[in-house]
Amino acid sequence: MDSRQLLVDTMSELMWERGYADTSPRHVRERSGVGQGSMYHHFPTKRDLALAALERNVQDLLPATSELDGQGDPMTRIEAYLMRPRAALKGCKVGRMTQDPQVREDPVLLAPVARAFAQVHDSWVRVLREAVAAGQLRADLDTERLAHTLMAVLQGGYVLAIAQQDPGPFDDARAGALDLLRAAAPSHQNTGRTA
After folding, report:
1. How sure is the predictor about 62, in pLDDT bands with cuts at 50, 70 and 90?
2. Where are the domains of the chain?
3. Which fold, 54-191?
4. Which terminus, N or C, of the chain has the lesser number of Cβ atoms within 10 Å?
């Protein structure tokens, strides 16, 4: 791995662990083993390195949404995405950045975060609309609003798990979201009756 990529990977991990504000160039150099001259050759400022790391974190997040955008039964894809193994006690690499005041206050650093969440939201809306079209969810559901709700369940689940240092609340939140989705099936599916 070249030194530029090593710096980006290291900054990505440190920002996930510590946040942007609490990650210094020295931390990155110490963990990566890359010298100061090489670091500043690739990234003149900490902000430049952080932006590259945020883009990397977004690239890590978005392939997972391919489960939502894939082929086959929409509710099966939704369940697979919600229940996919995650490091609940570490939180979301992208969502974590919204808690960092220096990222929130910098439109350039916040842009990749906002873009990633917009893309995930769009994937949720598409799969939810597919589930409605397939008769798996009621037609009167607002898929835009439901997409925001499901994203909030995951992000809030991370917060609860981290606060309690227990992945249980995260797992419960995901399972609860599935329970609510199943309850939002048309009534003939809930009762086993045919229309």
Report:
1. confident
2. 54-191
3. Tetracycline Repressor; domain 2 (1.10.357)
4. C
Question: Phi and psi at residue 158, in whole multiples of 5°?
Answer: -60, -45
pLDDT in tens, 141-167: 999 999 999 999 999 999 999 999 999
**3-class state of residue 68 by DSSP:** helix
Q: In this structure, what are the phi and psi dihedrals at residue 24, rounded to the nearest 5 degrees?
A: -105, 160
The amino acid at 98: T
Which helix (H) or strand (E) segment is 187 a member of?
A: helix 187-191
Q: Which residue carries 């690739």 as its tokens?
A: 42
DSSP 167: S
Maximum average pLDDT range among 98-102, 116-120, 172-176: 172-176
pLDDT, position 35: 92
Cβ(86)–Cβ(169) under 8 Å?
no
